[in-house]
Amino acid sequence: MDLARLEGFSDGTYEGMRQVVELFLEESRDTVTAMTVAVGEPDRPALISLAHRLGGSCAAVGAAALAARLFELEMRGRIVSREELANLMAGLEREFEETMRFLTAYLEGHAR
Amino acid sequence: MMKVLIIEDNVTVTTLYRNMLRAAGFVVEAAADGAKGLAAVSSFRPDVVLLDLMLPAVDGLSVLRTLRADPEWTALPIVVFSNSYSGQRLTEVWEAGATQVLAKASSTPKQVVEAVRATVAARTSGDMHQS
Questions:
Q1: What interface predicted TM-score (ipTM) does this complex get?
Q2: Which of A26, A32, B22, B35 sits CB 3.0–4.6 Å from B57 for a disulfide?
Q3: Does any CB of chain B come closer than 8 Å to the CB of residue A48?
Q4: Owning domain of residue B27
């Protein structure tokens, strides 16, 4: 996680940073949920579109590891087997959980 | 005050850059797809457009080509701000008349704001030289 990039969006206060992180996590959570549904159907065009859109957020805020997972899904999502698609999605979900834990801990550390 | 139109379907990116650009002194409006973006160019009449490529309804490249085909918007500064990794796509963007191309992954918030400011300044300077 590129914290300098993330902090570049805030006004330097804890409240400003909290707003940036919560905005990112809320959109990410909603999008990952929609992607899980798309994998289950499977609706590959919807999945790829969602991966690209969330990839934009991740790139902008410096969530590089999550952006890399999304890029892989965007590039390979149209051609891999259903089983491989489910594996890619599982990897993405793990990375999202890790990113969420990191950012939540970061905010808690700055709230003190 | 200078006006910026953000054409972007990503809520997080739109909100973050709208806040940054407002804090930098710009008047900012946003459109969530290409069709709304084209309508907003006519109604809001921005000094610069920050344009994503992969958009619903009408994609960013089509928005760029439509604007450049209209004599009224030939000189409008358009900064393409994209998550696209395709070299071919980026070549098309330059050929279609982008003023500047920035990658979301490698541009810091400050760099994006500065690019917008510099693009507007360059156009204003060009206008002054012509008059």
A1: 0.80
A2: B35
A3: no
A4: 3-130
